[in-house]
Design brief:
Elements: E1 4-7, H1 14-29, H2 36-45, H3 48-56, E2 60-67, E3 70-78, E4 92-98, H4 107-121, E5 126-132, H5 136-144, E6 148-157, E7 160-170
Parallel strand pairs: 4-5
Antiparallel strand pairs: 1-2, 2-3, 3-4, 5-7, 6-7
Helix pairs in contact: 1-3
């Protein structure tokens, strides 16, 4: 897969990145189909306008993995965040999504490695993330990269609550 590049996306890719977010989110979390709650959340959170806004925000870093100039993976960090367990200010790995057909090809590893380099260059020494407690593949991936479970927080989506693990890693 030598045709992979990782870079900051142009705003003109917002529509394609929006679709990537939606596809991966549904494949990962819509285990019982697409509920109204999921449809509302995904339509709002991953709209092309919201993605374009995220690309332009200085308080975030967003990188895309491209295969033959097409988005296949995305990683996003919010720099001005606070770990919900430790209450310590640190960057949060907000998203790390890879299209299912590209799983097992080290795309997630490459994206995470690149975003961690950016976080360290900005002067941070650790990073946190939240991961759905019923996503064993993601949990195992983060553990293999040195992230440690620090506790549990709730993710609220309209009327339902989902249990997330908070994981942190010292970067230097």
């Amino acid at each position: 897969m030598h045709e992979i590049s990782i870079q900051k996306p142009p705003v003109t890719d917002a529509l394609r990145i929006s679709l990537l977010f939606k596809q991966v989110y549904l494949q990962t979390y819509a285990k019982e189909g697409i509920s109204h709650e999921f449809a509302n959340f995904i339509s709002r959170k991953f709209s092309p306008e919201a993605v374009a806004d995220n690309i332009e925000k200085a308080s975030q870093s967003l990188l895309i993995a491209y295969f033959k100039d097409n988005p296949i993976g995305v990683v996003q960090v919010i720099h001005d965040s606070t770990c919900r367990i430790d209450k310590v200010q640190m960057p949060e790995l907000d998203k790390l999504y890879v299209l299912e057909r590209f799983h097992g090809k080290a795309i997630g590893h490459l994206l995470l490695k690149e975003i961690e380099k950016i976080v360290v260059r900005k002067g941070y020494t650790q990073m946190c993330l939240e991961v759905y407690s019923k996503n064993p593949r993601a949990i195992a991936f983060y553990e293999s990269k040195g992230y440690q479970n620090r506790g549990i927080v709730d993710f609220v989506m309209e009327t339902n609550t989902y249990e997330n693990f908070v994981m942190t890693k010292k970067l230097v």
